[in-house]
Amino acid sequence: MGRKRSGVRAASKTSIEISFQYEGEQCRERIPLEPSPANLKRAEQHKAAIELAIYNGTFDYAATFPHSKRTAKVGYKTGQIPLSTYLESWLERKEKALKASTIDGYRKIVNGVLIPKLGPTPLLSITRKSVRDALSGMDASNKRLANVQSCLRSALSDAVDDELIETNPLAGWTYSVKEKPKTVDDIDPFSPDEQRELLAAATGQYRNFLQFALWTGLRTSELVALEWGDVDWLRGEVRISRGLTMAAKEAELPKTSSGIRSVKLLPLALAALQDQKAHTYIEGKAIFHDPRYGKPFEGDQAIRKSFWMPTIRKAKVRYRNPYQTRHTYASMMLSAGEHPMWVAKQMGHKDWTMIARVYGRWIPTENDTSGRLAVEKFGSPVQSAQGSKTA
């Protein structure tokens, strides 16, 4: 008779079962080996190695038995966890802390880029080179690449906190490509004639919505979240403190503190609100409703299908996305000579550097008197004469 092997037995003609204690529970796992005397001895040695790793605190259940049903329960103890598995649990945790729109963006990056390209790679094996190799084949702008890496960098930072890896390989580093000069500008405002055509093509609440958007510069997500209680009729302002996207179940705070602001209501914006009163003012909540259903818009994306595309076609205006109403507002204000800092505050930017960078071409340069005051104060004839002698 063969000797008795504790915790090791033949489970079938093609497998051996080993049993051991782990975290107070009896565990049984099968090894795909024919139960020959030699293989049974190997299984005993494997069991002994597992028990030693458990004793030393280095046992990784999932790495040892990656196909075990118990893996999902006990999880991983080291950085051998595949990136895909970690990202899935990471997203679940982040849902409680981040805005729904941010989580939606992360989920698209995780499922659309990171898992397909790097999913099976263990956390410990993620390096700058592996990330560069994975992203180098993408036909994407540097902005897109930066967004993908920002998501991965955040996840790896949390993996460091979880003590699965020692350092974040993406800390202080970003992969980018040399981009070709842009031939198409994404800032494409509507001309005054196009605005008139659009407003003529829109009716009822849609027209009010469009006119208000053109004359406040609000984001679409801010427009659909706006409520009558946000309007200060005496001061002629509207308070912006939240936005509603399709990914969110309810309105959320802006990403930055500068997004919370009071926007001055210019005459045409006020006129649009006055006309809108007849539709939703009595209810006292959301200002703009979707006329198709007689209730507030459920998110910013609903605008595009409900009236934006039909209105563009009816007006016979070249297509641009709804966000161009915001660009139109900025270009109108700057072209008229309004101060860039005021425009920045209206639009929710913390300073006017972005206004100057993005909308600089609309800041007037005709009749530019820059430097005139300095010349008048310091450029006296005496100084000019002295300057000539010195030269």
Automatic annotation (TrEMBL):
Q: Which organism is it from?
A: Pseudomonas duriflava
Task: Report what the protein is called.
Answer: Integrase
Record family assignment:
Belongs to the 'phage' integrase family.
Matching entries from InterPro entries are given as: CB (IPR044068), DNA_brk_join_enz (IPR011010), Integrase-like_cat_sf (IPR013762), Integrase_catalytic (IPR002104), Integrase_recombinase_N (IPR010998), Integrase_SAM-like_N (IPR004107), Min27-like_integrase_DNA_bind (IPR022000), Phage_Integrase (IPR050808)
Q: Any idea where the Tyr recombinase domain is?
A: 185-372
Keyword DNA-binding annotated:
yes
Q: What would be an example GO MF term here?
A: DNA binding
Residue ranges annotated for the Core-binding (CB) domain, each copy included? 81-160
Recorded hits in CDD domains, A to Z, give: INT_ICEBs1_C_like
* Entry keyword set: DNA integration, DNA recombination, DNA-binding
Under the heading PROSITE patterns, the entry gives:
CB, TYR_RECOMBINASE
Q: Which GO terms describe its biological process?
A: DNA integration; DNA recombination
